[in-house]
Amino acid sequence: MQKLEVEKEAVALLKSGLEIEKKLLEQSHEKYKKEIVTFEKEYGMSSKKFFDEFNSGNLGDDEKWFDWLFAYKAYNHAKEKLELAKKIKL
Questions:
Q1: Residue range 37-71, pLDDT digits in tens
Q2: Looking at residue 2, what is its pLDDT?
Q3: Rounded Cα gap, residues 38 and 88, in angstroms
Q4: Which of 35, 72, 38 is nearest to 53 (CA)?
Q5: What is residue 30's predicted lDDT score, i.e. its pLDDT?
Q6: Which ranges in 3-87 belong to alpha helices (H)?
Q7: Which of 1, 2, 57, 77 is deepest in the core (most CB within 10 A)?
Q8: Could you give the CA distance from residue 41 to residue 68 in angstroms, rounded to a whole number?
């Protein structure tokens, strides 16, 4: 584990910035979760299956697939960053 040294006066600033970032990530995570659930219902497959099928070239390059791909990647990105932010102890 790495340690970060900051001045005592900066701790409050870091805490508030981290809390804001967590809230933004939570909102983003929920937004994209709703979007991928909608895609999954509409196309009758999980996002994981879609991702595998898309990457193997089985679905073509229709714009709708890129919208789902973006939502899936954004959801996972927000999830990873949120998990990381929750591990930070100040």
A1: 999 999 999 999 999 999 999 999 999 899 999 99
A2: 76
A3: 32
A4: 72
A5: 97
A6: 11-43, 47-55, 63-87
A7: 77
A8: 12
